[in-house]
Every structure is written in structure tokens, then in C-alpha cells.
Amino acid sequence: MSHRRNGKAPRTTDGAHLPRHYEGKGVLQALLQASGSELGAEAVAVRFGEVLARRGTPDEAIPSLWEGEPHFASPDLALRAYGNLFGLWDRLAAGLPAEPGAVASEGQMSERAPAPRPEPFGEGPLTEDFVEAAWRHLADLSPRETERLAHRYENTQPDLFEFVRLEGGEDAAVVDNADTLVFELWAMLELARPDPGRRALRSSEIEAAKKRSDAPEPALARYIDEALTEAELDDERPLTPAQSGRVGLIARAAARALAGLAGVSPAP
Prior knowledge:
Blueprint: H1 25-35, H2 41-53, H3 58-61, H4 75-93, H5 128-139, H6 143-156, H7 158-168, H8 172-192, H9 203-211, H10 218-232, H11 241-262
Helix pairs in contact: 1-4, 2-4, 5-8, 7-8, 7-11, 8-11, 9-11, 10-11
């Protein structure tokens, strides 16, 4: 089972959704080193200048900073690195000197603590804040903790686990993405409504949820939509629209069935 948003670099696209802020060469150098790049901040500025001179784009310049795929210890560090790179690009594109007046030192660069387990949710539909907190907690789990949680999901929800494989059929990309997404939805709802004695979903309940057309929990529905968008834009194995549609149907059916089992209020 693979897991999304695990600290890999986000797509650069145009950086529209990143905090484009350059914190200085000390911070950028530490971020680049932590991600596996052999270039320093000054070398990056030189490369950016060369690409700008030939009217290139950041999508040309930024991927060339690594040999192969960059690796970050957490999603926050990946976003911070890309925000710094786009911030530096913006400064150079505007004709400003690379370094701002105050340069941060490497000693200021430190990784944040893992996101804590969110408190169980109260009554009513889940909020986006809770879903975000739950995702951050899951993303920061160690590989061993993630594997242990995945085994618990497979063992306690065997019919749901099998449903994903039957619906995905022989398309490995659909099965892999649906498996990951349904696991995340299950884990979020377990965090929202912890209950050691919760029973397993029955196949008939999952099939009934599949036939319904009502939207899942609004915050979970948005999470599913974001996940599908990311999957379609993945650099290595992007989903086709048809594959994304199939994954979405599986995930929404699972969200409906799981929300009912966990006692989460249905969407209005």
C-alpha cells in the first residue's frame, strides 16, 4: 500500500499555491542539502539567472536542481523548499539581488515535530480543520507505525479491503490509488470516532453505499477531490480521467459506508 503526500516534492507547475518567500541562502542551502541536492544556494541563483536569460520558466529550472527525485523528511519541508525556490526565482525575475537584507542562518533551519494525534471529534459533520489535522498526523507517522495501522485496517475491515480490489479489477493504478485513499478515509474516521469494539462493514452495506448518490461528509468529499487531482497530476504515474473517476466512485462509496459505521452525521 502506498501513501500520498509523504514528503515527496510537489509538482512545481507555476507555484501559484505555494508561499513564495525566499528566506535567504542559509535556509535554502539547508533545505537543498536535506532533500538530496548537491547544489548550493549560490549555484541555484546562477542557474536560475541562466534560465531567465533565455526566457525559460521555473518548471524548467527547478527540476534540474536534483539528480532524480528529491526527497524531503516531511510535506512541510517540501513546501518550504519550493516556496523558497519560487521566492528566489521571483526576486531574480524582478531584477532584485538574490539575497534579501537579512539572511537567515542554517542554525535557524530545523524540522518541526511530528504532527500530534488530533483529539476525537465531537458531534456533527467533520470539519476541514479536523481532516487536515488527521492527514498531517497520518503523514508524519513512521513507516513502522503506518504499516501497523494498515494491517489493522486490512484485518478489521476485510470486506472493504476486498471491495477495493474487486472494483479496481486488473487496473493496478486504480487499485493502488483507491486502496491508499480508502485507507486514509478509514484512518481519519477512526481518529474522529475511536472505538476498539467497532464491527466490520458488511459487503451488503458497502454495496448499498455504492448505489447511493448522496455526497459523503463534505470535508471528506473535498479531501477525495484533492487526492484525485493530485493523482491526475502525478509526475510518475498520473491517473487518466477515466481511472480517476473509478477511484472516486470507490472512495465515495467507502466514505459513505464508513461514516455511517463510525456514527458521523451524514452530509446535509
